[in-house]
Write a structure and sequence with these properties.
This protein has helices at residues 15-33, 36-46, 50-55, 73-76, 84-105, 107-128, 140-153, 171-189, 199-216; strands at 2-7, 158-162, 166-170. It is mainly α.
Length: 224
Amino acid sequence: MIPLRDINPTERRPVVTWALIALNVALVVTELLVDAGTKHEWIERFGVVPSVLTQTDLLVPRSEGGGLGALITPFTSMFLHGSALHALANVWFLYIFGDNVEDALGRVRFVLFYLACGAFAAIAHVATGPDDFVPMIGGSGAVSGVLAAYVVLFPKARVLTMAIVFVELPAFLFVFVWFGLQVVSALLSMGGLGGGVAWFAHVGGFLVGLVLVFAMRPRGDVRA
């Protein structure tokens, strides 16, 4: 189920959304240009490695066997991607839904909201696999939070969707189906059927987004 566009105009230019998209595109292009060894080093250093965050001393430098420096990875990991397709999927969802959420929250709140959703999504991933040594990267958790905010703020906005056919769906139905797929996939991943995707990060980012949007949207906002 792929969103093609939403029918929901904005009042202001979504400069933060554009900047986030540009940053993600620039970084994934850079990843494609560097050699495999350098990319691997970046992922190991700036990706979220659950076992590093849960089983090492976070006050001791990494060079001395500790995890100090890994504390930034819940933020840095959301701007790295495993492939161009991985980045494209996140950038596309951000392009469709981010502008309206930015318009409703305001630019500063939107930046804080996006980073918070991404960070808490990483924490959710760590909590469900604290012994995992495989780095997690990608902005899917932050984008999931944006989807949660969108459905709270604009539940009846129309979303042109490509499923088996092209169809316009209300946002609440599109997001309900999307989130259901994430939950099912997360549960299946507990049995080893996750396909290497951090599904619990998607779920965690969405749930945090649901909470944060109520706390962060300006008072008196009636656009929902």
